Design the sequence.
């Protein structure tokens, strides 16, 4: 009975040891798979971090270009605004000068008209005087 119980216990022990070895092998496989997955994820993280660094660098470069362009455009706008102000001032002066010239031309035309009228009257008087002097002895 003891021999049979011992034999039965040994068989059970062997079965349990085999199950333990199988479980250890499966656990070792799972550990290996997890380690591979961890390494794969680490590589992926490294690649993504590199891509992120490159994107940040590209974005910073792009932002620098945009800042420079904005600065350049602001300077151009300031220059154009100054030119516009100067042109408006020049236009105002030209308009004022034009108004003065128009006024001068108008006065000169009025004077010319008056002189022409006076000349016409003087001619009439001369003709009248000639006619009168021609009839007088």
Sequence:
């Amino acid at each position: 009975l003891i021999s049979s119980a011992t034999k039965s216990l040994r068989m059970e022990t062997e079965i349990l040891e085999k199950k333990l070895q199988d479980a250890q092998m499966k656990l070792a496989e799972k550990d290996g798979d997890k380690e591979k997955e961890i390494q794969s994820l680490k590589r992926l993280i490294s690649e993504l971090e590199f891509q992120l660094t490159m994107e940040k660098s590209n974005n910073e470069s792009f932002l620098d270009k945009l800042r420079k362009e904005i600065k350049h455009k602001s300077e151009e706008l300031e220059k154009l605004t100054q030119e516009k102000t100067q042109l408006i001032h020049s236009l105002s002066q030209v308009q004022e000068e034009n108004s003065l010239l128009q006024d001068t031309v108008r006065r000169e035309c009025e004077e010319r008209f008056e002189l022409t009228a006076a000349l016409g009257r003087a001619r009439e008087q001369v003709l009248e005087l000639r006619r009168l002097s021609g009839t007088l002895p």
The helical segments are 2-135. The chain has a mean pLDDT of 95.
